[in-house]
Amino acid sequence: MTAEATFRGALARVHRVDEKLYQRALARHAALTKPPGSLGALEPLGARLAAVLGTLKPRPEGRAVAVFAADHGVAAAGVSAYPQSVTAGMVRNFLAGGAAVNALAAAAGAKLLIVDVGVAADVDDHPALWSRKVARGTRNMLHGPAMTRAELFAACAAGVEAAEHLAARGAVLLAGGEMGIGNTTAAAALTAHLTGAPARAVTGRGSGLDDAGLARKVAVVEQVLERHGEQATEPLEALRRFGGLEIAALTGFYVGAAALRAPVVLDGFIATAAALVAAALAPAVRDYLFAAHRSQEPGHAVQLQHLGLTPLFDLGLRLGEGSGAVLAFGLLEGAAAVLRDMATFEEAGL
């Protein structure tokens, strides 16, 4: 099967969740031994999990996060506070267990899979590494499309296969993360194009740009939107033109999770840019997406509003890596446990 067939096959398997089951879950909440609505947002959260998993007793206990890494040609335009070599360095740090997502995944009892879909440097084999390198980074979107169609679908298929790989190993609750110097620039271009928001409204400081760096980054996003906007007539073409390979892989990961009827937790700005693409291709994907948090990147609030998603918390996070998504695992399992394990008034004899 070709990479394009793998991705389009997963798209065809995405279906809406059972709205009647969602309503039944809310009705069960109303009958539990507590004042109605007293658990606030945990109640619809648990009902959403019930609808996704197809049961009034949801048990999303197998946790896993896939972190997709790739480099970006647009980094040459000085849009990041760090050099491109940091991407490969951070991948090695993930594999050595020294990054924030390692610590948080361990604390959450989550499996961690690192996927190289486009790091510009070689990365040594490691048990936690999935090598699916499509290319050594994308091309500079200032000068042309970031990816070819073959590269686009290869990266999307890698994401689908990562979701299937983790589900086959017992993961029920999934999350996606990313690493790639320059990827907030690609995410900003995608977000502006897909939501219609101005470049300045969705472009932030990323890994710590000063005022001059931010102005340069905004100018780059405006230039690529002018260059590619009229030709990016559908979501996959926008993704191909703006990049990046890890964003394409995350798009495939979300589609793959939805095709498996698995709840998938969104992290921050880059991860949610991929969700914009996935939901534009298959609106039913939204049913399976759970927004962990609101990032400090200004474009993240625009993305979440466009998707109609309410984040579970706002801790001022802007790291990426899947770090915020992993933090949300406990809240999601708590919401499921309340719906599943609490007694109704009738069951308690009250």
From TrEMBL:
This protein's record includes keyword Plastid: no
Record InterPro entries: Nict_dMeBzImd_PRibTrfase, Nict_dMeBzImd_PRibTrfase_bact, Nict_dMeBzImd_PRibTrfase_N, Nict_dMeBzImd_PRibTrfase_sf
Active site: 321 (proton acceptor)
Catalytic activity from the UniProt record: 5,6-dimethylbenzimidazole + nicotinate beta-D-ribonucleotide = alpha-ribazole 5'-phosphate + nicotinate + H(+)
Membrane spanning residue stretches: none
Keywords: Cobalamin biosynthesis, Glycosyltransferase, Transferase
Pathways per UniProt: Nucleoside biosynthesis; alpha-ribazole biosynthesis; alpha-ribazole from 5,6-dimethylbenzimidazole: step 1/2
Pfam family, one: DBI_PRT
EC numbers on record: 2.4.2.21
GO terms classed as biological process: cobalamin biosynthetic process
Gene Ontology molecular function: any one: nicotinate-nucleotide-dimethylbenzimidazole phosphoribosyltransferase activity
Protein role: Catalyzes the synthesis of alpha-ribazole-5'-phosphate from nicotinate mononucleotide (NAMN) and 5,6-dimethylbenzimidazole (DMB).
HAMAP family listed in its UniProt record: CobT (MF_00230)
Xref: PANTHER family: NICOTINATE-NUCLEOTIDE--DIMETHYLBENZIMIDAZOLE PHOSPHORIBOSYLTRANSFERASE
Name of this chain's protein: Nicotinate-nucleotide--dimethylbenzimidazole phosphoribosyltransferase
